Amino acid sequence: MTETTDETSADPATVLLVDDNRDWLTLVVQRLREEAPDFDVRAANSVDGALDRLTDDVECVVSDYYMPGRTGIELLAAVREDRPDLPFLLFTGAGNEGLASSALSAGADDYIVKTSVAESAAALTTRVRTAVDKHRTERALAESEARYRTLVENVRDAIFVARDGGVVLVNDAATTLTGYDRAALLAGDIVETVVHPDDRVRVRDALDLSAPQSLDIRIRTRNGETRHCILDVDHVVDDGLPGSIGVLRDITAQVHHQRRLERERDTKEAIREILVRQSSRVEVAEAFCRYIGSDPDTAVAWVGERTAGGGLDPLAVEGDGSYLRAAGVLDADAAARRDSTEPSLTAFREGGTAVRTVGAEASRPGTPDADSDRRWVEAASAAGIETAVAVSLRHGGVDYGVLGVYRRGDDDDRERRRLEELAETLGYALSTAESREALVADEVVRVRLSVRDDGAGVLAVGDALGRDAELVVHTVLPRGDSERYFVTVRGATEAAVTDALASLDGVTPGGVAAEDEVVRAQFDTAAPSLGTAIADAGGVLHRVVVADGEATVVVDLPRRRPAGPFVEALAAGFDSVVMTARNHRSVESDIGASVLAGLTDRQRESLEVAYRTGYFERPKRRSAAEVAEAIGVSRSTFTQHLRAAQRKVFAELFDGEPGDA
């Protein structure tokens, strides 16, 4: 405060001195200028004269009380109308203490007893300087507080100032964030009112400490919502008293985004493990349901597969599956499946995604009015289910059934999108598992197709070889955006095959070698790829023969898979696809099927490519490094898979059981 007074006193102060005694006024003004050369002293002989000279730069008025016409008190009243905070001192005669008291009550800042000129000038210098400094300090403080409040109110973060256990200031952002009005925040214990119960002790400790603190905390808004915030606390001295200033920054969106990223990462890792470790349709469905059901908000997660009669049977259920029976999902007849709004039945019937909020369904006017609707809504309510999301399971044009997830809590768009992504992956996994099962099934549906498309992959190779050549595909390996084919060609020379492969865009030649009456070749093709299309549609490629501009394709389908949707899915990628034969085929249980059941995809791939490329012949037509390059793995990885596959084959041959390797 002292430093501020000295600095303000260094500036000239304009003083208006008012007295009807001209001689006395002249002497006092002269003496005052000598006593205080930093004062700019102006004089007036009447109230009217004083008002005329009262400009904006005047910082203090000193007036006599007794003047003709209007008194000093009347001048005070006139000054206060326009300049309510302007310092005003009143001259009084000796013995007029009562008058001085009235002057102070009327709003005067001080009074001076009029004595000799010298004494009056000395007293006047001290009192004026004090009044001006006080006014300047108060004005600077007010301007500073105004700037501070403007700054605080325009900051987007919530700000509060606490002192002696109470809050003395909050900004508008604090009321917006918390939902409480300013009066509620100022009246109560802000920690008790706003801070999450689990974080209150930490916040109180931070407010009590003298060092700055930064905390991750949660707050509870007036409507019960939890928000995540960063609280920065610092300690200040306000009006000489210690206090704390807190800044709350809402980071809820960032926290949710980070959690969503972590959940997506965990989801991808969990799904990768499922796809790697599970082989059968049941195992895949159970693993997906277990993963979804690990969320504590999930009451029931299930995968229903289409029955021969067009209904739904549970392939896997996680949680309290009694809801499915109570809601009539599992035993729904054709009429119920056609009309019900139950989410799983709706998604199964219409495809896509069905979302239902149980409370909304129960409260809609006039609904549910059908028995099937009442049944599922009541069953869901009894099971504590609040939201249901069901997604149809399709892959490669084939309908596998439905994924149904029944949750406690409100509908969430992000959760819905996540389930849709999971359903898409699950459809692919079921397709792959079903194809794998078809390799060792006791009965399959064998389909013979005629495929024509001169510009597509292996068909383009056949066309380039000419009508006299016959190309037989033995093995197809996926290679990211392309496929690697291992084929034999009859009716063409090694040079002709080499030239044909080199002439095609989208085809990358590999090894070409003549052997007896055939040419063995390896090449990569870009999409559209016949092998990929067959696998995506759920088929197992048995044989492909390309001759005379046409590919004859033999595919095995799982017994339960209808051939029509498979052919339609394949036809979407090629100019002409015609099914020429279809029959059920019984597969004898032999060592081949048994061994295939025990091999992983990589083991089977390593064993077959090694055989097709002459690795087992003497002398070897391909080295281990060359076979490894052909299947896109390192030499050590290839030999590891190959040895594991060989151990399983030998174990089946000699022990009757696949090996554990």
TrEMBL record:
PROSITE patterns: PAC, PAS, RESPONSE_REGULATORY. Residues 144-214 form the PAS domain. InterPro entries: BAT_GAF/HTH-assoc (IPR031803), CheY-like_superfamily (IPR011006), GAF-like_dom_sf (IPR029016), HTH_bacterioopsin (IPR007050), PAC (IPR001610), PAS (IPR000014), PAS-assoc_C (IPR000700), PAS-like_dom_sf (IPR035965). The keyword Nuclease does not apply. GO terms for biological process: phosphorelay signal transduction system; regulation of DNA-templated transcription. The modification 4-aspartylphosphate is found at D64. Residues 14-129 form the Response regulatory domain. It comes from the Archaea. The keyword Transcription applies. CDD domains: PAS, REC. Residues 213-263 form the PAC domain. Keywords: Phosphoprotein, Transcription, Transcription regulation. PANTHER family: DIMETHYL SULFOXIDE REDUCTASE TRANSCRIPTIONAL ACTIVATOR. This is PAS/PAC sensor protein.
